[in-house]
User: Which sequence fits this backbone?
């Protein structure tokens, strides 16, 4: 199904806006993560670290959920509309790597939403930081191959 350049442009802009909001959610998640990593002693109950950790876990799960249930679907739709078969092919191994980080993130969440023992939190946060680095790089690559690369078709259609 051939779509006119105006329809493609509208879709591309809508997808871009959705991705930008998601990246802003990522920034908020990272701010909360950094706040938690600055804590060196989680034993002081008066500082309400459990509430901070709970908020962080909620943001993290929301971020991951939006990725899987909105962003990745929209990116695949975008690639399909733009007949970006190469991007769709490249996306499968990237999505598999992202799924591994999703499992690690959910394991962290499960651990810290069911325990009051914060003894290993500093170590687990450090490991989670490494998971974030890998995940965000893979997400950015996915955005590039399924969405950003489509802009050349818009420019080509407009000339």
Assistant:
């Amino acid at each position: 199904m051939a779509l006119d350049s105006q329809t493609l442009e509208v879709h591309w802009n809508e997808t871009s806006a959705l991705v930008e909001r998601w990246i802003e959610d990522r920034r908020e998640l990272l701010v909360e993560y950094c706040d938690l990593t600055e804590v060196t002693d989680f034993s002081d109950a008066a500082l309400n670290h459990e509430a901070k950790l709970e908020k962080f876990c909620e943001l993290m799960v929301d971020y991951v959920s939006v990725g899987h249930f909105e962003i990745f679907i929209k990116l695949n739709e975008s690639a399909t509309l733009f007949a970006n078969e190469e991007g769709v092919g490249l996306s499968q191994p990237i999505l598999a790597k992202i799924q591994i980080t999703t499992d690690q993130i959910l394991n962290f969440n499960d651990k810290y939403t069911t325990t009051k023992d914060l003894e290993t939190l500093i170590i687990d946060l450090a490991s989670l930081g490494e998971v974030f680095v890998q995940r965000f790089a893979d997400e950015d690559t996915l955005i590039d191959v399924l969405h950003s690369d489509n802009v050349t078709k818009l420019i080509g259609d407009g000339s």
